[in-house]
Amino acid sequence: MDALIAKADAMPSRKRKRTQPKSKTDRTYESVIKQTSLPKSLRATKSIEGLPTHDHIANKKLRRQLTRTAENAASSKLLREDAELLLTGEAGGVAVEGEMERTWRVGQAEIVEGAGHEASRGRREWKLDGGPYRTRYTRNGRHLAIAGRTGHVATFDWQTGQLHSELQLQETCRDITFLHDQSHYAVAQKKFVYIYDRDGVELHCLKSHIEPTRLEFLPYHWLLASVGNAGYLKYQDTSTGQLLVEHRTKLGACSTMTQNVHNAVIHLGHQNGCVTLWTPNLPHPAVQLLAHMGPVSSVAIDPSTGGRYMATAGQDSTVKVWDCRNWKGAIREWNARGGPAELEWSARGALAVASGGTVNIYTKPSIHNPLPARTQPPLYLTHPITHRPLTSVRFAPFQDVLTIGHNAGLSSILVPGSGEPNFDSAEADPFENKKSRREREVRGLLDKIQPDMIALDADFVGSLAPESKLTTAVTATLAEGKGPVIGGKAMPNVPYALLPRMERLRLAGKADTTEDTSDWEDDAGDDNDGEKKPKMTKEEKDKKKMRGKGRSLARYLRKQRKNVIDPTAVAIRKKLEKQEAEKRKMEQAAAGQTTDAKPSALDRFKRPS
Amino acid sequence: MKINVLQHAPSAHLPTRKGDPMPTSRNLDPLMHPFARARERTRAVNAAKLDRIFAKPFVAALEGHVDAIEVITRKPGDLTTVASGSWDGGVIVHHLARRSQLLHLPQAHKGKVSGISFSGDRLLSCGVDRTVKLWSLDSQDRTPITTFDGKSAFNSIDHHRSEPLFATASTTVQIWDVNKSAPISNLAFPTTSESITAVRFNLSESSVLASIGSDRAFTLSDIRTGKAERRVVMQFRSNALSWSPTFPTLLLLASEDHNLYTFDVRHLAAPTQIYKAHVAAVMSCDWSPTGTHFVSGGWDRTVRIWEEGRGTKPEVYHTKRMQRVMSTAYSADARFVLSGSDDGNLRIWKSKASEKLGIVTARERAAIEYRESLKDRWKMDKEVNKVLGTRHLPKPVYQASKLKRTMLDARRVKEERRRKHTRAGEEKPKAERAKAVVSEQR
């Protein structure tokens, strides 16, 4: 027995402190590592700076897990940065050599001359007589669907010139979109939305979408959204076939729609100048803003910043750029000459504005820089097209190609630097074959995201739930002397033992209020997040003043429990003292007194500041 | 003016020869992967659901006993050989892989067989007929090699790990030599006269043995000193015990109060963990050879598989025809669990309910591992957790657990109210773990 205990105790305790600090560079390791490749488990872990500490968490297991998660996330971020070296594709661009050179003076002929043989094939003119055309690319940029106003619909592989289907529908076609890939496409026709397969066979007539004007397909949710002359936004699940939801916009006929690819929110532009943002699970717009003083003619979202910027164009021939994080006025606006504009933003952040008889292209940093004056940002490229009206502009994904649909057909122009050079074949592959297309289809169905997960903040999945704004058990019980409120319901006389764990911890003063919310995994370009929170106005301050825990705690002690000593009261007293001490410290710090140093006899000689 | 237009070289992105796989390219930029987290969550939910869909834990039932199976023992160092003893006095040695009987002794003892232990290639069995019998595994004539006579009915037997010694439990713990007919020593704690219900040697420090008795206590003794060294009296009596195979100081007790307890023998003041889920007395328990899990069988007709250190939400196995589970055991490769119940069947279950038996290809293994890590990563998600944590329970067990929860809650509230209305500091709340132990005696 004792032997057993002795044996078991002989295990070295982990708490024993190291006698000498571990040197940062291990010489043996450094010398060996040059010659060998160590297995992963034996490699020295790089110390990563700026990791969030979890020292405040008492639970050892949890602390270790959190630390490890943060380390893993940080190291994978580093590794990902490393992996950028492996990207082989080189983005295009136009570089000026002299001081007086201007990129917008470069014409398409010159660009085609300067482009390689393969790339120069992107410059094309299609002369078609189906009226003004709408176009749409597949997600891999390989296939193009076009729909003429008078009913000419075609889909084709634009690089090889292979035609998939060509239809003369003999009725008005207002928009066209591919579904998940080139094998299906939907056309907004005179009365309903129709779905055709690759060969042009009509598969479905969606009779619930009446007089549709615009179509959008949300590829990760498998939703086909349409908006029409009646002003209804309808979502149809293309994997199950059911009409998911229809939202009445109450803003009349709508002919402007776009999606934010990063959070699947649908943006609608209306006749009265409003732009509304819709998700399937809200019966009202998530955001509604008055963008223009007349009808909105086009809306586009910047995919290169994760959907952070939105551009709108109105019939009043202005173009405005908005910051989607706060809607305090446009950050930039200018007049587009020649009437209402069509907008489109490319994967690398080039904004194409087609208005009147020209297509103007602006590039990234200047569009996003706030400027109060109504001057247009420096022009990158411009291209005149005489066949008015210009009804659609689309950038081809993974190409430096912009396709403009107009009255006399289509024209493709080269826009160097607009396309993303490196594709990910797990997401969209321009070179995919039949087998990989099928595989992607099945994978896409398996990974289909439920429509109720669409929200303005797409990153809410897997992050911490925001703390409930409802009255907590603590404050309610203590302030009113009544039972706590759990989940919005008043629960009179719920005993301590039956409270939720967080409430019990809070009552005992053991709740972890120092939650560290710095998220290492969230890294989609958070570099300009450094804005400070706006200061509270006086009203807000007053409003929030009485809601603090401290007041109600103090009142609780004062009014009812003056001479009751029970664990709750003791805990509250202790907490109050702590809060007061902290407050005092803060005040002193604010007054400029540093309390950290020990008071010394020489303090009396200090000059009062 | 320098103009550069993006172009993809098809040679880099298309297979060079016919039949080659398509080259893939990666771009890890998060902007290229919208909804990466949401899609991963979807995959995690699907993984959790697949896990439940494939959860078919029952493998086989081995018949042969007429009455309840009291004891199941596996042969040390053997993957397939397992012996079971029944209330009808029969002993069967099973071959698990072939699901056949190696040895069947229908009348090994008169009355119930209360303990079985392997002694090398031979089998020791004890019964309530006051005998211990030593059998050869290939004895066809069904007569024991030796019979050891005791003064009272035996309740349990365990063989020493290396030496030819075995311990029996009756009114006292007796140590026997296989080659001698009388016990060589008696181990008894001086102040008690209880009947001992189970005895087990420690697996690492093999001269230490633990025993449990009918007077709610468990005792640790050492055969070298020949004395009982520690005795811990608990609130309720224990029905079974088991030493951890990998952590030598850890002792598992299956208690009459529906709980299991692990004790660290270095610190007997309180158990290290209480395992709560059974809704009736726990009748048996056994550690997995890996020491990370253990199995328990209960009077509530369920078999539960626990993770060491996690006191709730065990895996639950039950079938319509399985009665009170009197004995459980892990298989030697930790992939299967055996349960012997009142209905006389020995059942084989998978220890991981959704594990695939048979050959698993490399791609399949990779997919399984990916699903495992997804489940682990997303286990804090409400939906994933719900799918992973939900188990179907038989209606009586479900009702009983509901009732039990209500009762315990009421008791807690009552205790709290009582404390609230007594003078401050007079009555202190006692930790749940400390409640289990009444006293520790040396």
Please state the structural category of chain B. Answer: alpha+beta
Q: Which sequence of strands runs across the widest sheet of chain A? A: 2-29-28-27
At CATH level 2, the architecture of the domain at 104-414 in chain A is 7 Propeller
- The helix/strand class of chain A is alpha+beta
Q: Please state roughly what percent of the residues of chain A sit in beta strands, choosing from under 5%, 5-15%, 15-25%, 25-35%, 35-45% or over 45%.
A: 25-35%
Per the CATH scheme, the topology name of the largest domain in chain B is: Methylamine Dehydrogenase, Chain H
- Uncertain spans of chain A: 516-532
CATH class of the largest domain in chain B: Mainly Beta
Q: Report the sheet-strand fraction of chain B.
A: 35-45%
The best one-word shape of chain B is globular
Oligomer: heterodimer
Give the chain pair forming the largest contact, with residue counts.
A-B, 84 and 60 residues
Count of individual helical segments of chain A: 12
CATH architecture group name of the largest domain in chain B: 7 Propeller
* C-alpha geometry of chain A: globular
CATH class of the domain at 104-414 in chain A: Mainly Beta
CATH topology of the domain at 104-414 in chain A: Methylamine Dehydrogenase, Chain H
The number of helical segments of chain B is 6
Instruction: Give start-end ranges of low-pLDDT stretches of chain B.
Output: none
WD repeats (chain A): 289-323
Domain BING4 C-terminal (chain A): 379-458
Biased composition (Basic and acidic residues) (chain A): 530-543, 577-587
Organism (chain A): Hohenbuehelia grisea
Task: Give a description of the structure.
The complex is a heterodimer of chains A (609) and B (442). By secondary structure, chain A is α+β, with helices and mostly antiparallel strands. Among the domains of chain A are: 104-414, Methylamine Dehydrogenase, Chain H (7 Propeller); 470-508 and 550-579, no CATH class. The radius of gyration of chain A is 31 Å and the shape is globular. Chain B is an alpha+beta fold and 442 residues long. Chain B folds into 2 domains: 58-350, Methylamine Dehydrogenase, Chain H (7 Propeller), CATH 2.130.10.10; 361-411, no CATH class. Chain B has helices spanning 10-13, 36-53, 362-377, 382-389, 395-420, 432-436; strands at 2-4, 58-62, 69-74, 81-86, 91-95, 100-105, 113-119, 122-127, 131-136, 146-149, 156-159, 165-169, 173-177, 183-187, 196-201, 208-213, 217-222, 227-234, 238-243, 250-255, 259-264, 273-276, 282-287, 293-298, 303-307, 315-317, 325-330, 336-341, 346-350, 437-441. In chain B, the strands form 7 sheets. Chain B has a 5-stranded antiparallel beta sheet with strand order 15-16-17-18-30. In chain B, strand 8 and strand 9 (131-136) form a beta hairpin. In chain B, helix 2 crosses helix 3 and helix 2 runs parallel beside helix 4. The longest helix of chain B is centred in the C-terminal third of the chain and has 26 residues, at 395-420. Chain B is globular and about 105 Å long. The model of chain B has no long low-confidence stretch (mean pLDDT 93). The chains are: A alpha+beta (609), B alpha+beta (442). Chains A and B meet through helix 1, strand 1, helix 4, helix 5 and helix 7 of A and strand 1, helix 1, helix 2, strand 17 and helix 5 of B. Strand 1 of chain A pairs antiparallel with strand 1 (2-4) of chain B, so a sheet runs across the interface.
